[in-house]
Automatic annotation (TrEMBL):
The keyword Acyltransferase does not apply. The gene is PRA1B3_3. Keywords: Membrane, Transmembrane, Transmembrane helix, Transport. PANTHER family: PRENYLATED RAB ACCEPTOR 1-RELATED, PRENYLATED RAB ACCEPTOR PROTEIN 1. Its main location: membrane. One of its GO terms (biological process) is vesicle-mediated transport. This is PRA1 family protein. It is found in: Membrane.
Length: 209
């Protein structure tokens, strides 16, 4: 009686993309927490005694620039709250965006290269999958109400930020000398979190490029 021979390569193993995705979420979470820990006190942001009307547009622009340097984490939080409020008040748009984000993450960015996308018995290549995702993103953002909702939420948030920055006097604000200007949420775009995102998706994307 022949004994069955097990193939080590056929044994189910957790895909590399799963660990990469978890690492990406972990680094993203730690980056957001680090950014929130550097926000200024909200009472300082709303100190009524520090508000005055700017004498000119030049002074208003200078105030906005200096206040953004000091309150940048608070301002980014306000923009995020504006987006969150708009999306929560429109559940369908929120569901569409979450579905689109999940499609990008699980069908392309973190999908193992040796596992093709199969829908209704049809196998889609990496280029076809990427093309479908790009077209879907364009349709969702530019040809539906989702895009206008995002733009309007950002404009409202920017208007609030600019109004606060223009009317708050920055003379009493002092930026810590040892604090770098690229810390906080924006460090995710150019710092450690971006490198973790690249390393997390490298194993899945390298085979497609």
């Amino acid at each position: 009686m022949a004994m069955p021979i097990s193939n080590p390569q056929s044994e189910s193993q957790p895909p590399i993309a799963t660990a990469a995705f978890r690492n990406f979420l972990s680094r993203l979470t730690s980056t957001v927490r680090h950014g929130l820990s550097q926000r200024r006190p909200w009472l300082e942001l709303l100190d009524r005694s520090s508000f005055s009307r700017p004498d000119s547009l030049t002074e208003a622009a200078t105030r906005i620039r200096r206040n953004y340097t000091y309150f940048r984490i608070n301002y980014i939080s306000l923009l995020a709250l504006s987006l969150a409020f708009s999306l929560l008040s429109h559940p369908f748009s929120l569901l569409v965006l979450l579905s689109l984000l999940a499609a990008w993450l699980f069908l392309y960015a973190f999908r193992p290269s040796d596992q093709p996308v199969v829908v209704a018995g049809r196998t889609f290549s990496d280029r076809e999958t990427l093309g479908i995702l790009v077209v879907s993103t364009i349709v969702v953002v530019f040809l539906t109400s989702v895009g206008s909702l995002l733009i309007s939420a950002l404009l409202v948030g920017l208007a609030v930020v600019c109004a606060h920055g223009a009317f708050r006097m920055p003379e009493d604000l002092f930026l810590d000398d040892q604090e770098p200007l690229n810390t906080g949420f924006m460090s995710f775009l150019g710092g450690a979190a971006s490198s973790s995102a690249a390393s997390a998706a490298a194993s899945a994307v390298a085979a497609r490029v």
